[in-house]
């Protein structure tokens, strides 16, 4: 199952291996001045790195060399 009970509402289940969750570029999400994201991620191994969150050309949050860079 893709969803499970989260800390506050729904959460994505860790029982499903996801390479990404894609959120469509809808008018409701355009022009927001402030957005809050909450991410919990488990790496596959100690050398794993990659993007946790990205909106190309606007913002990103990534894991590299055991550091979160945003």
How would you describe this protein?
The chain has 70 residues and is mainly beta. It is 0% helix and 33% strand. The chain has strands at 3-6, 9-12, 50-55, 59-64, 67-69. The strands form 2 sheets. Strands 3-4-5 form a 3-stranded antiparallel sheet, with no helix packed on it. A two-stranded antiparallel sheet has the order 1-2. β4 (59-64) and β5 form a beta hairpin. The radius of gyration is 14 Å and the shape is globular. The mean pLDDT is 76.
Write the layout of secondary structure elements.
Elements: E1 3-6, E2 9-12, E3 50-55, E4 59-64, E5 67-69
Antiparallel strand pairs: 1-2, 3-4, 4-5
Principal-axis shape: globular
Rg (CA only): 14 Å
Element-level helix/strand string = EEEEE
State the helicity in percent bands. under 10%
Largest sheet: 3 strands, antiparallel
The stretches of 5 or more residues where confidence is low (pLDDT under 50) are none
Which features characterize this protein?
70 residues, mainly beta, three-stranded antiparallel β-sheet, 5 strands, globular
